[in-house]
Amino acid sequence: MLISCGDALIDFVPTRNADGREAVMPAVGGSCLNVAIGMARLGAPTGFVGGISTDLFGRMIADHAAASNVELGLATRSDHQTTLAFVRIVAGESNYAFYDEATAARNWTYRRGTVPFADGEAVHFGSTTLVNDQGAAETKALVADAQASSTICFDPNCRPNLVKDKPAYLARMAEFAEAADLIKMSDVDFAYLFGTEPYEQRASALLGQGTSLVVITRGSDGAIAWHAKAGQVEVPAPKVAVADTIGAGDSFQAALLFALHKQGRLARQRLKDIGIDELRRALAFAANCAGITCTRPGADPPWSHEVSSSW
To answer: Where is each Carbohydrate kinase PfkB domain found (predicted)?
Structure first.
């Protein structure tokens, strides 16, 4: 099983009504839930760990996840309200306003002994759950338990408008990166975390501390990756008609983990030994899946029948 741990919420994505005025449309989202949905739709056995409300929006989230074949038995249901995120597209980038006080995702606690890490080939985590102290502490405990048997996959998916203490947040992200076998981040995340430091310099430092694979997605400029053994690989982004980029990075991560899983290269030692051609193929597949997501509004990762693949 592939496991994704973190946020589940409702995005209110921009649209226009019949009169042409700006409006918003509710869509199930949350970076880590999106990753789970993306992996499951492609055909991987997938479970989600996190807090989901029993309110109206929480039922939308649960129904959407179940319809995408995500196992929700590992999630925690509560009567806390659902996190809401309002999205506005500015210069091609998604900007978010979050309403996240006293929510099911914010109040999630890790229930030790309930997650079958022995059967979990990989555990993905990141995003808004790591901003607040409780979510970060609970995730840290989960990752510590998972490390013995599962490949640890990390996407910081930074949300600067939620961060109150940037130095503390940067230190927290560095600590999580130290525990990760695979780190994926967008160019926007990289700039927030590392400023103008050259990509290759930071990737070298991350590989030097034990990470096997570092990937940076760059929107229409494609993705570039560094592997401790295979070296550097770059793949282009497909040319598509973009509806919005919401969930594109999550779809990339989901497809990358799925591709590595199908290649038999996701387990920790197998990831360390991956060849450059296998890595390029996995990255290209991930870029194509992200491209499909960009063609439709909201976080809507592709299903296996929508992807041209010989997996």
So the answer is: 6-303
Question: Concatenated DSSP letters for 166-185?
Answer: HHHHHHHHHHHHHT-SEEEE
Instruction: Report the number of distinct structural domains present in the chain.
Output: 1
**Three-class SS of residue 118?**
helix
Is 17 inside a domain boundary? Answer: no
Residue linked to tokens 């990753």: 35
pLDDT score at 108: 96
Candidates 189, 213, 215, 222; CA nearest to 290 is 222
Identity of residue 295: T
By C-alpha distance, which of 99, 108, 102 is closest to 7?
108
Helices 276-294 and 248-262: crossing angle in degrees, nearest 10, is 140
Q: What Rg value do the Cα atoms of the chain yield, rounded? A: 18
Does residue 98 fall inside a structural domain?
A: no
Cβ 13 vs Cβ 160: under 8 Å: no
48-79 residue pLDDT tens: 999 999 999 999 999 999 999 999 999 999 99
Tell me if 247 sits within 8 A of 298, measured CB to CB.
yes
DSSP reduced 3-state for 161: helix
